[in-house]
What we know:
Elements: E1 2-4, H1 11-27, E2 33-35, H2 42-49, E3 58-61, H3 64-72, H4 80-83, E4 84-100, H5 108-117, E5 123-126, H6 132-144, E6 149-152, H7 156-164, E7 170-174, H8 179-184, E8 187-192, E9 218-226, H9 231-244, H10 248-255, E10 259-261, H11 266-287
Parallel strand pairs: 1-2, 1-3, 5-6, 5-7
Antiparallel strand pairs: 3-9, 4-7, 4-8, 4-9, 4-10
Helix pairs in contact: 3-11, 6-11
Amino acid sequence: RFVVPFPPGGGVDIVARSVAEKLSPRLGQPILIDNKPGAGTTIGTDAAAKSAPDGYTFLVGPIGGQAIVLLLHKNLTFDIRRDFAPVTRLGQGTIALVVPESSKAKSAAELVALAKASPGKLTFASSGTGALIHLTGELFSQAAGIRMTHIPYKGTTQILPDILNGRIDMALDSLPAYLPHLKSGKLRALAVASRQRSAQFPELPTLLESGFPGVVSATDYALYAPAGTPKEVIALVNREIGAVLQMADLRAKLAAQGTEVAGSTPEALKDELLDEIAKWAKVIRDGNIRPE
């Protein structure tokens, strides 16, 4: 059973189903996708944390997103560090800095210059206060030394009409929903927030290359097991998923969704989670951010 703390159809769900489809025959048993959305991923994560550590239940979820939940929600019934054993990283989706066609900015540096010329006037959209996309915008603002006005929406589909007609000045958001509008020229991408350039848009610089140190963010995906799951089970699943992630058809399928797959050791995933907690803790503290 793969517990997915999001509704069907989103990035985490697509990655979970794609991996499960290839992993199932290798393990010789079916894998149920158990969608448990709600309360900022805490309902599904709590259910997975309370599951028996028998090697049959796993959580598929974000890395950065779980770090943010830990930092912003004070009365959690679980702790991602204590109640889960990391299994493997699965991949990541690209977050891009997007502006309307009408924007005067042709680069991230030009956008920052516009923001510095009119402090607080430029607006940036997010899919909700305290979520990864909001904090990515804050991370960029802090690194660039600018002040922008945050406009929270209920999701990316609500952002699109306002950024297309120029009512919003920018978004640092997950790439897939913006692709048709980038291809039509109605929107313009200035940079990506990943550590390396995007395979889909290799001409776009990273924000690191653009002169904004530390601005790294992605919609990342990983597999966790309830704490106490036997180490030999974790090693087996890690090895089998590592093989699955090398399959050309799986890689092509997820690349079409804007996801670049990459596995890891359990130890590397643990280190990445701790790094994400430290990074977002600073952003939340410096931005005085509170949950909705």
